[in-house]
Amino acid sequence: MTLPLRPVSTVGALADALRTRVLSGEIEPGTPLPEQEIAASYGVARPTVREALASLVHEGLLRRERNRSAYVPEVTISDLQDLMYVRRPLEDLMVRAVAGRRVPAAEAALRRWDALPADAPWSESVAEHMELHQALIEAAGSPRLERLYSVLAAETRLGMVRLRAVYRDRDVVVREHRELLDAIAEGPVEHARAAMAAHLSHTWGSDPHS
User: Is the bond preceding 188 in cis, omega lying within 30 degrees of 0?
Assistant: First the structure.
């Protein structure tokens, strides 16, 4: 089946289409993405496919090895635990700086997340989740913290894909983030830090296959 794309930027449109499928879990980890098959499916030239795949490899959403098609990397429970090992101190630094105030951009991301239609692809939840946490990090006012956090963005997004099996009801995860933002805004700092630590342990400590 041919899936036509708008000619805005064919490479960008194809990358967006593939990104949505990856972040919605439609393309499962380990599934190869042969350039010729993608070109035929979307009705585009192979150089276009090559550029789009390269973009997603650069983002960390795909991996490419010598003599092998690009594929979605597997994020294991061990990977998630190590990701949290690094994320926790960064999120804690953010909370220390932000506790006691609202972050409008994070609140806006939560409202958009909550307003998504029930049948919205999981990729849209992933996007708003990332916007919310990124807004909190930026509110801390440390460019270096932002840079460190951005390095973890791809694995965090892929981790959210894995959590799709845990949070079948989007309202639950939205409510948890509402409670987190309230705890950060209301303070005091130690209460906000504890809320963030609990949030990360609860959300990312879940094994969708257990």
Answer: yes
